[in-house]
Amino acid sequence: MSIKQRISNGFRRLHRWLGLSVVILTLIWGIEALALPPLLAADSPQIDNRLPMSTVVDAVPPFSRQQATQALLNQHLEGIGTVSEIDAITYFPKLNIYQFKNQTQHIEGYINAQTGELLKYGFNTEAFLAQQGLLKWLHAGLGNLIQVVSLLVTLTVVISGSYLFLNPFWVKKFRSN
Fold this sequence. Notes:
By secondary structure, the protein is α+β, with helices and mostly antiparallel strands. It has one domain (17-176). It has four helices and five strands, in the order αβαββββαα. A five-stranded mixed beta sheet has the order 1-5-4-3-2. Strand 2 (88-92) and strand 3 (97-102) form a beta hairpin. The longest helix is centred in the first third of the chain and has 38 residues, at 3-40. The protein is elongated. The mean pLDDT is 81.
């Protein structure tokens, strides 16, 4: 067996096993994406990252931050029911809404800044998966290690796949010369 055949066979074997590991990592991510959000957000509805639309009435001045916080707390929502559970408050003046976040539990609430009406509330699945995906919810170090290994494995699969794809063309080119 020539050196080129050994290299090609080695790349095929490497490509096959690393491809299998990419499939396993993809399955882990897919199962997490499907199973964890309903388990973690069993008591609250699920929401996405899109901002709700609010009706702006120019004649009515918007609530202050304290008034908006009190309007949200009057709703008695789980996960952001007390001031200590609110990690971040953001005001969107063009939409005239306040966003309240509990970043540890990935719960968000949006209220109209003029009426105090609750526009949207729930568990933000997209934020959870972005911050805690690939087993980071188990342990941050494990999740980071899996991400680095996944990156290296994917890079190796791309390189070996490129070699396996281009090798027959190179062989034909060099044989014809």
